[in-house]
Amino acid sequence: MSGLGELDRPETPRSPGAWDERSRTSLAHGTYGTYGADGASDADTALGAETGAGDGGRPVEGPAPVEEWSPGEGARLRDGAARDGAVGDGAGRDGVVRDGGRKSPSVSAARRSAADPVKGLLHRHRELCERAVDPLEIAAGLEAHGVTDRTAARFRHRDVFSLAEEMYARVPRDRDTPAHPGDDPASRLRGPRTAGVVLALLPGVLCAAAVAGLRLTEGRPRLIVAVVGVLAVSLALGAALRRGPLSAATRTTGTWTCWLVGYAVLGDGLLRTAVGGGPDGLPDGTADGPWPVTVAPVLALALSYAPAAGCARLFTAGARGKLTSSRGLADFSASVRPLLLGTFALYVGALTGLLALTGAVLGEPAGLPQGLSLGALLLLARLLTVHGHAHAPTLVLTAAAAAEAVAPATLFAGRLPGCGFLSAPVEALVTACGPAGVPTAVCGLGALTLLVHACRRLTRASAHATTEPTR
């Protein structure tokens, strides 16, 4: 008989000494040093711990804990060999060098991996841990890869944040070399810089100058002022959106945003005149012309870019600050949701004041319903785009722009013989709520849809992972 069965078979010693040749060979090759009392080897134990296999081959959740040495026959023989041998050079009393107390490198590595399950997770997410500037980025990345609080419990942590903190602390970093200032989110969120403040205020200032130019000119000069003003405000807004808290890597909603803003200027007047059989001419930049122009809501929206940037910065900084107080993904979502709603309400309040102010200064209706619905829609769409969720804003803005385009189109189509039924819904809405009813309904429904979507998406830790530094 040979192999493991021969070693385990009890047998009367064949030599008169305390140890026979088989016992000496067992100690020399470490047989009993690698087998416990239950007959399971260290390699088998480590493999079970690494793969999550329990007793009898049954799978268990997570890495199994490392088994302690049992006081079995193998342990007694190993202890006896240690008493007989010299500690320094591994030689026993009879001069035989024994290494039975040592384990093979593969077995030792397996046991260390089972005792430290986070090490394997660090290896799989090494790039994420190395480029992270704080534990929140690791937590966000783990959540994006499907790691939940229940998964973190298998790695002997109570939540994903605790696991991320350990992974962040264990990644070696050169503390003597300071990080680049642009790579630190805290430095980007620590107070607005002068350039950022100027860019945030520039669209509103240029829009106010353009409106003043329209009021002070007539005829062809007014047309030139309008064209120059539109170009200047567009360029300033584009420059402001390329940096700061509202900057985003993807730019897929610019066309629809311009359409919605253009409708806010010309759409209400077009509907009013279309219901009465017009328009009889092109817009001349005034509120009482053949095609009335409304500039108060657009001026308020341009001025509200600075409050929108401030609210976005406040929301981002507050969400990252919840790392210290949140102890789980559900806790993090519950603490970020009031912050999102609070910053949204703050922007709506600021926009309400600006609409009232511009309406009073220009002597025009403030346009609160359509101005507030449009501003809320644009803010939520931008926040979602900034945090990596651009699909839903693109769909909602596209649908809103299409609905606003269909409204006047149905009025003109209803003038065709036998097609009067096409204009009936829009005419009824305009008669009941005025021309502002169409953009209020369309943008309000879109803003409500994005608000519900933002409460689900922007309250996740993965939405606040830093991908690229702000330019």
Write the layout of secondary structure elements.
Blueprint: H1 4-8, H2 21-28, H3 42-51, H4 73-84, H5 105-115, H6 117-124, H7 126-131, H8 135-144, H9 149-154, H10 160-170, H11 185-189, H12 194-216, H13 219-241, H14 254-275, H15 296-303, H16 305-321, H17 329-362, H18 368-386, H19 391-413, H20 424-433, H21 437-457
Helix pairs in contact: 3-5, 8-10, 12-13, 12-15, 12-16, 14-18, 14-19, 15-17, 15-18, 16-17, 17-18, 18-19, 18-21, 19-21
Low-confidence stretches: 1-7, 15-19, 23-105, 175-191, 467-471
Count of DSSP strands: 0
For the biggest sheet, the summary is:
none
Structural class: mainly alpha
Question: Roughly what is the average pLDDT, rounded to an integer?
Answer: 74
| Outline | elongated
Strand content: under 5%
Bin the helical content.
55-70%
Helix segment count? Answer: 21
Describe this structure in words.
- The chain has 471 residues and is mainly α.
- Helix content is 62%, strand content 0%.
- It contains 21 helices and no strands.
- It has helices at 4-8, 21-28, 42-51, 73-84, 105-115, 117-124, 126-131, 135-144, 149-154, 160-170, 185-189, 194-216, 219-241, 254-275, 296-303, 305-321, 329-362, 368-386, 391-413, 424-433, 437-457.
- The longest helix is centred in the C-terminal third of the chain and has 34 residues, at 329-362.
- It is elongated, with a radius of gyration of 36 Å.
- The chain starts with a helix and ends in a 14-residue tail after the last helix.
